[in-house]
Design a protein that fits this description.
By secondary structure, this protein is mainly alpha-helical. It has one domain (2-144). It has helices spanning 2-21, 52-63, 71-91, 97-144. α1 (2-21) crosses α3 and α3 (71-91) runs antiparallel to α4. The chain is elongated, with a radius of gyration of 21 Å.
């Protein structure tokens, strides 16, 4: 029973932290989430008054959102929900404490491996391409200046 209490307390803490990083206030305040204030989004808004260099930096910063977004919290929360749902739907009972922990670890590792696969084969290359493209644009604009 202690393991269940610890896991549920951990899940609640992770949920509150995840909500705050996504730009949501306290659940008790009743305010809506403002996704523009989220950790991965803040600082990427372009304004008409921005210089070309500022806009290019914001594009690079926005394209590199994966480095500011914490995925492991969402994966832990998802693995908890998956294991509880699977055990309850398939076996019609709650998992034992060690089945819960082992199942969560297996699902966590599976989702993390898939996430890292896409990060390595997709997201990292996109970030490099964005960085290179903004560098080329900056160089071309600087070559036009007298």
């Amino acid at each position: 029973m202690i393991v269940y209490a610890f896991v549920i307390l951990t899940m609640v803490c992770l949920l509150f932290k995840e909500r705050s990083c996504l730009g949501c206030g306290s659940i008790l305040s009743g305010e809506d989430c403002n996704n523009e204030d989220g950790k991965a989004v803040v600082g990427t808004q372009a304004y008409i008054s921005d210089t070309v260099d500022m806009l290019l930096e914001k594009i690079k910063y926005a394209g590199n959102y994966k480095s500011r977004f914490v995925t492991w919290r969402g994966v832990v929360l998802t693995s908890f929900l998956i294991i509880i749902s699977l055990w309850f739907i398939v076996l019609r009972k709650m998992p034992s404490e060690w089945e819960l922990i082992t199942g969560m670890m297996v699902v966590f590792l599976g989702i993390s491996m898939m996430n890292n696969f896409y990060k390595f084969h997709l997201f990292d290359h996109i970030s490099k391409n964005i960085d290179l493209s903004t560098k080329f644009i900056k160089d071309k604009i600087n070559s036009l200046k007298f």
